Amino acid sequence: MNNKSLGQKGEKLASNYLISNGYAILDKNYRTPIGEIDIIAENNGILCIIEVKTGTDESTKYFLPEQRIDAKKRNRLRKLAEIYVKHNNINQKKEIRIDAISVIFRENKEPIIEHFENI
What we know:
alpha+beta, Trna Endonuclease, Chain: A, domain 1, five-stranded mixed beta sheet, 2 helices, globular
């Protein structure tokens, strides 16, 4: 499986995970000239900007998927959140949180899904 299809599969699992935990999915793969937001969801009145990182047993030997979200990526996610809020006329005072979801696919086992809030 190539990286793109692995990522898409991870995003689908992340979406299902969020829905099963009471989140409303508002948008997926929101693209702008400076980047993309994987999932935009709402939970308890909080707008959640969610970056999904996917890996396999093999690819996580040295780095976990969530470790690939550095300060530069977090800053870009904040800018993308501002663009989304402005573009969709969302109240500027609405609480916004940047989250990450790590999905690790394992051979012959259920995937591991971890949700990191407020990264």
